[in-house]
């Protein structure tokens, strides 16, 4: 077999193998849905086996959770978000932001070399909540640092409620749970998962006493605290005590509600903390 012909055959085989693993670009798989009388956002999401949050993320007019007959919604092929690339962003940087793998993103986005928009599967859109104005008060007590390896508590505890859609234990309604509940005893120290700056430290409605920390590539939230021991604008380091476990706000008992938020062009979205916490638990 001539060398040139053999090389062409190998290239053709490589293209076949690539096509086998590369899905069509997600934007080509988005389909329209015209809202019919009697339909709700939840019923439409169930029809397409999606989370309502996915539909809200792709359709800004219905981010209030309401749809109207005649509206045309764009329905993506699976749960996830569309991330529009900014300057110097690529598959690798986006994978780091959303805690996934670059090769997975590459395959799920049709193996496009230079896409303008990247679909990140499994990440659910979440609106940035409106929090009360930040207070200005001094921290109480000395700074306490406990080596935890990035876990938000001094030791690993059971997960009492996972990330995602569930029946709210207080209202009984079907609602989205944007974090993970860690069943720790009242008064257990709550720790910063990594270095950062305190963005918020005060009462926040259903969150109760809430601390939000801005890190280099993400934000974390620690809710239902019985006591807050940091102030807004304060720099904290990994393992530093920022409060104590409590049951403030909408809570049925002492636990830590922990969230991880990732940045997008449309604001901050909640991502599932389970993979992060599971990796830490295995190391300990």
Shape annotation: globular
Looking at this structure, what is the CATH superfamily of the largest domain?
Glucose Permease (Domain IIA)
Strand tally is: 16
CATH topology of the largest domain: Glucose Permease (Domain IIA)
- Low confidence ranges: 3-18, 129-139
The topology string of helices and strands comes to HHEHHEEHHEEEEEEEEEEEEEH
Which second-level CATH architecture of the largest domain applies? Distorted Sandwich
What is the level 1 CATH name of the largest domain? Mainly Beta
State the distance separating the first and last CA atoms: 58 Å
Derived from helix and strand composition plus strand pairing, the structural class reads alpha+beta
Overview of this structure, please?
- The chain folds into two domains: 21-121, Membrane-bound Lytic Murein Transglycosylase D, Chain A (Roll), CATH 3.10.350.10; 159-283, Glucose Permease (Domain IIA) (Distorted Sandwich).
- With 284 residues, the chain is α+β, with helices and mostly antiparallel strands.
- The protein starts with a helix and ends with a helix.
- The chain has seven helices and 16 strands.
- Helix content is 22%, strand content 28%.
- Strands 5, 8, 9, 10, 11, 12, 13, 14, 15 and 16 form a ten-stranded antiparallel sheet that branches. The protein has a two-stranded antiparallel sheet with strand order 1-2. It has a two-stranded antiparallel ribbon with strand order 3-4.
- α5 packs across α6 (102-108).
- The radius of gyration is 22 Å and the shape is globular.
- The model is unreliable at 3-18 and 129-139 (pLDDT under 50).
């Amino acid at each position: 077999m001539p060398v040139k012909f053999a090389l062409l055959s190998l290239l053709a085989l490589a293209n076949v193998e690539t096509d086998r693993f590369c899905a069509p670009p997600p934007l080509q798989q988005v389909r329209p849905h015209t809202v019919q009388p009697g339909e709700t956002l939840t019923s439409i999401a169930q029809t397409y086996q999606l989370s309502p949050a996915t539909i809200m993320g792709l359709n800004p007019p219905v981010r209030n959770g309401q749809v109207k007959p005649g509206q045309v919604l764009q329905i993506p092929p699976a749960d996830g978000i569309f991330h529009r690339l900014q300057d110097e962003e690529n598959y690798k940087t986006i994978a780091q932001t959303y805690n996934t793998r670059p090769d997975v993103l590459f395959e799920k986005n049709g193996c496009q070399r230079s896409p303008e928009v990247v679909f990140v599967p499994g990440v659910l859109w979440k609106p940035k909540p409106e929090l009360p104005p930040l207070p200005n008060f001094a921290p109480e007590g000395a700074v306490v640092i406990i080596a935890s390896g990035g876990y938000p508590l001094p030791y690993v505890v059971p997960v009492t409620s996972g990330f995602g859609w569930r029946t709210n234990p207080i209202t009984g309604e079907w609602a989205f749970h944007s974090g993970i509940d860690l069943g720790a005893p009242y008064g257990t120290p709550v720790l910063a998962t990594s270095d950062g700056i305190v963005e918020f430290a005060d009462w926040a409605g259903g969150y109760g006493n809430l601390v939000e920390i801005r890190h280099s590539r993400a934000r974390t939230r620690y809710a239902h605290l019985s006591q807050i021991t940091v102030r807004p604008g304060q720099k904290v380091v990994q393992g530093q005590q920022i409060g104590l476990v409590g049951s403030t706000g909408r809570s049925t008992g002492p636990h830590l509600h922990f969230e991880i938020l990732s940045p997008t062009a449309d604001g901050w979205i909640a991502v599932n903390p389970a993979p992060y916490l599971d990796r830490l638990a295995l190391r300990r």
